[in-house]
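Quick one: structure for this chain?
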Amino acid sequence: MPRSELKRAYAAPAVEKAFEVIEYLAAHPKGALISEIAADLGRTVGELFRIVVVMENLGYLRKSRTTDRYTVTYKLLDVAFRATPSQDLVRAALPEMQALALETGQSCHLVVPSKGHGMVVAREEQPGTRGFSLKVGARVDIINSCSGQVILAFSDPMRVERIVGEAEEEGSQKVDLEWLNKRSEAIRKAGFDRRKSPITYGVTDISFPVFGFKQDVQAALTIPFMSMIDGSQKVELDEACEILRRTTERISDRLGYQA
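Got it. Here's what it folds into:
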């Protein structure tokens, strides 16, 4: 049966609307009124009202007492962690990430693949007064980012093909596979990736893979290394690379990886 026919045969309109609301609110962190959600989704208020109220009663949405705007609660993130391998991964990584931030004086974040993009599932801020970090739940460009390319470089070809296809569908543009294969080959040869941030001045992204029990890449652990004008960073870039390498080896070991 074609996929389009399969979708029609097993349609669940209420479930579809619920996830439409969640995805909509994910892009509106300040929240939205039911009327705004309905208008932007091309739905009527009547279609969404009962669904939104049920999700609020279950604790997945929260309604502001002052503005009547709805936002997504942390319960959704909690369920996601408990229902996916991210829970074990984050549990194994967090103590090491905390030690990494203290030793290097730099923040770090853990990225996993999520359909056509990467997602930050854990972060640790550096202990000083200055730093740069990504929020938990932040989406990362899995094709062009340092973290994303490390994940792709150490993934098997079938997984790469699936992720690239999803990224193309999500971004509505073709990926240059020849360029991506060359980048992946260079990263595999080096064992990691390190390059100037394409977004933030003074930041060099360093990323190493984290492997799991099945010998597959689970995530990428990344330091957005900030170089201070006065040279007051705790360690230099090369030393931070080495500390990050040892950290990802310990996390992988905790996950049962055998090189």
